[in-house]
Specification:
By secondary structure, this protein is of the alpha+beta class. The chain is built from seven helices and 13 strands. The two termini are 33 Å apart.
């Protein structure tokens, strides 16, 4: 994969031409998609997944509330964990045919050993450590095409809140391949990358924000989280970050 770019290469330059509206099913390279996306109205949203454009459907209220709760969960962890950062609906340039816009992202900051960076025009490039997508109408895309893109890019953990099925699916990258992990007997997921990042799945699905935050706080108060000082790890942070044992779905 060559250097990621946010302007079309000379072979696909669009200067002086009318830029067509992006439509679901368009097959584009990342740079051409990015140029056409930038020319769309500010409230327009699209993603490039595996070289194919997807324009999302309107979002129901349940999606918006679930998204807000996921953001609150991650922001609470971010505040408690120096060396991390949260993104909300930010474009992520992952490769020559991949420019998704995940619902929520948790990264290790670059100065603490994270793998993301920022392009000259302010877009995130490189694989985040953890991505969360809330899926309803986008379920088939999030669990298949998008999951493959994240796997190929090297996103370490991918979490999908599947609203229609009332489940949370959590994938961990192992030897370059995603393996799905199981929640424990209480329905808790515990990140294998971020110490203390605990998710109470039943509480999230019933939109019980207090319980979601209480469970996360228990994780933040563990010795594992206290021992993890990402802000002081420098460029060796990712290599030194603990990876905890997980139970995989058979």
């Amino acid at each position: 994969m060559g250097k990621l770019q946010t302007v079309p290469s000379p072979a696909t330059a669009l200067h002086g031409r009318h830029l067509p509206r992006l439509e679901t099913g368009d097959h584009l390279d990342q740079a051409t998609f990015h140029a056409r996306y930038a020319a769309m109205p500010p409230d327009f949203r699209a993603e490039l997944i595996g070289g194919v454009v997807f324009v999302p459907s309107p979002l129901r209220l349940e999606h918006g509330v679930s998204h807000a709760l996921v953001m609150g969960w991650l922001i609470h962890y971010w505040i408690a964990t120096p060396g991390t950062q949260v993104w909300d609906n930010a474009t992520a340039i992952l490769g020559d045919d991949s420019e998704p816009q995940p619902d929520a992202v948790l990264i290790i900051e670059p100065h603490s050993g994270g793998r993301t960076s920022v392009s000259e025009d302010g877009y995130a490039t490189g694989p985040p450590e953890l991505i969360v997508d809330v899926a309803s109408s986008s379920e088939s895309i999030d669990l298949h095409r998008k999951r493959r893109d994240y796997e190929q890019a090297g996103v370490l953990e991918y979490v999908v809140v599947v609203l229609r099925q009332r489940v949370v699916r959590w994938f961990v990258l192992q030897d370059g391949t995603y393996r799905e992990v199981e929640a424990d007997a209480q329905g808790l997921f515990k990140s294998s990358v971020f110490p203390g990042l605990w998710l109470d799945t039943p509480a999230l699905l019933r939109l019980d924000g207090r319980q979601v935050m209480a469970t996360l706080q228990h994780g933040i108060e563990t010795p594992e989280h206290a021992a993890c000082s990402l802000a002081d790890r420098g460029h060796q942070g990712r290599d030194q970050l603990p990876r905890y044992s997980v139970v995989y779905v058979q």
